[in-house]
Each structure stands twice: as C-alpha cells, then as structure tokens.
Amino acid sequence: VAFARAQQSGEHYALYSSHEERAEVPFDDLRDAILNNRLEVHLQPIWDLRKQCLGGMESLARWNHRERGLVPPDAFIPLSEQTGLIVPLTRWSVNATLRHCATAFKAGHGLPVSINLSARVFHEQGIVEQVLGALNLWEVPPESVVLEVTENAIMEDPVLSARVLERLRDKGLRIAIDDFGAGYASFSYLKQFPASELKIDRSFVKDMLVDPRAAQLVRAMIDLAHHLKIDAVAEGVEDKETADRLIGMGCDFGQGWYFGRPQPADTFIASL
Ligand code: C2E
Ligand code: CA
Ligand code: CA
Ligand code: CA
C-alpha cells in the first residue's frame, strides 16, 4: 500500500542520513537507482583476531547519486523497507555482492562474505530460491556466505524468520545476529535460532575503554557466544587499544575503521 501511495503522489520522504543532515529521498529516484544499477557494493574487512589475518568482509550498499554523491544506506534502507523497494534492493544486493565474490574466488581469494538481510524479505515468496539461485549463478559456495539479520528483524516474526533461515542454513549458509545487544532481544530466540555468529553492537564496543560497564557487557556477550559454540564479532573497533582488549577477552573477529573502512568492492578485491 505504501508502495502504491508513494508512487501515486511522488511523495518525498524526510530522512536523516548518518551525518544527521536532513536528506529528502524521493521514491522515484530510489526506484530508478535500483533498476538502473546506480547502487554500489562497498566491502569492509572483518579481521580474524585469533589468527591475525583477514577473516571475511561485509557488503554495505551505497547509492551513487547524480547530485548528492555517495548516499549512505541509513538514508535509503528505511524508505525501501517502508515501500517494498527492499525486495528488488535485496535481489540486487545479493547478486551484486556474489558477482564481486566470484571475481575474488577466481583470483584465489575464497573469503567469506556477509550480506545484510532485512526482515521484510522473509515474507517474500521465493526468497530462499532467489538466494540459492544467485549462489548457483555465480558459483559461490554457500559455506562462504553469512546472512546478517538484526535481533529486531527476528523478533518481529520469530516463527517466520526461523523457518526461512533454517532452510538457508540447511543449504550451508551461515547466519549472524547483527547489532546484538541493541535490539528488543529475548533469550528465547537464541535457544532455537540457527545462528553461527553474534555481532556485538558498536554502541558497546565504542565505550569499552571509558565505561567499565560497557566493557563487562562486551565480555558477557563474548562468553555467551562461546557457551553457544558460536563466534563473537565486535563491530565498530576504531583503535588498537580496543582491539587489544577484545583479543584479551577472547573475541573471535573484529570489524571497524581500525582494521579498514568500507571501500568500493573493485578496489577492495584488487587489494587482496
Ligand atoms: P550494519 O550492518 O550495522 O553495518 C555496520 C555499519 O557501521 C556500516 O555503516 C559501517 O560503515 C559502519 N562502521 C563500520 N566500522 C565502523 C567504525 O569503526 N566506526 C563507525 N562509527 N562506524 C563503523 P553503513 O555502511 O552506513 O550501513 C548502515 C546500515 O545499513 C548497516 O548497519 C545495515 O543495517 C544497513 N545496510 C547496509 N547495506 C545494506 C544492504 O545491502 N541491505 C540491507 N538490508 N541493509 C543494508
Ligand atoms: Ca551488518
Ligand atoms: Ca551491525
Ligand atoms: Ca547497525
């Protein structure tokens, strides 16, 4: 309904970019950007803290806008979720990411890639087949793909989420719980949920050095992950001190500006 309404009225959505400046994102503009391939995949390294080597990468969407330059996803993902554009956007994101991975694989760099999945797409008929079809097309092994889902997405419809994600897990894909600790969480989903990674939200990691309670919570989340026999990934690691603390706590992976910023996929893969 929102999709049709926005289409009719040519309504402009008021949104805030991550830089907190007001940005008006017109629906038609975003639809055209998705259809005409003006979105780009950027990749950010995920660092293996135990082996001290590159452990993977996360795919992050950017919109290369004619006038505005690179628009961050916070300025268009919420609009795409409200209007149904998230469905073609996800199709684009999965395909474009795996296309870049195929290039990396052919060059001998078989790194796992993490792709963000919005809860909205769980309702989409054939979403599982779409993901599997893309893996097949680009000849990327399912074991190399991690699907990142937020706690809020899971809690919106735990039964449906579990059903969709279990089917994907059964095909060999891995599931990460994104922004862990920042959402409306319930331990009950951890009990049945087929996750293989917990990504500790940046809001805890960024305060670790100055706030002992934040540090204790990070430690507790790492221990929780290990009790569940899954990997802990810390997000938003911006300096060496934080990285060292995380290593001391036994955290498995780290992601953040200290290890590398998101870069255009071609640049990232050429640098491997
Ligand atoms: P996220 O999945 O939590 O992604 C991590 C965000 O933190 C990214 O912002 C990344 O650039 C940023 N970041 C990484 N390291 C640091 C750091 O050390 N310090 C700080 N301050 N920030 C750091 P980005 O790229 O703006 O993405 C924002 C959100 O948009 C993502 O949050 C994700 O939820 C969503 N998103 C991005 N691409 C897609 C996509 O293709 N599909 C869907 N459904 N969502 C996407
Ligand atoms: Ca993510
Ligand atoms: Ca996250
Ligand atoms: Ca986030």
From TrEMBL:
Signal peptide: none annotated. Residues 23-272 form the EAL domain. GO terms for molecular function: cyclic-guanylate-specific phosphodiesterase activity. The chain holds residues 134 to 405 of 405 of the full protein. This is GGDEF domain-containing protein. It comes from Arenimonas oryziterrae DSM 21050 = YC6267. The lineage of its organism: Bacteria, Pseudomonadati, Pseudomonadota, Gammaproteobacteria, Lysobacterales.
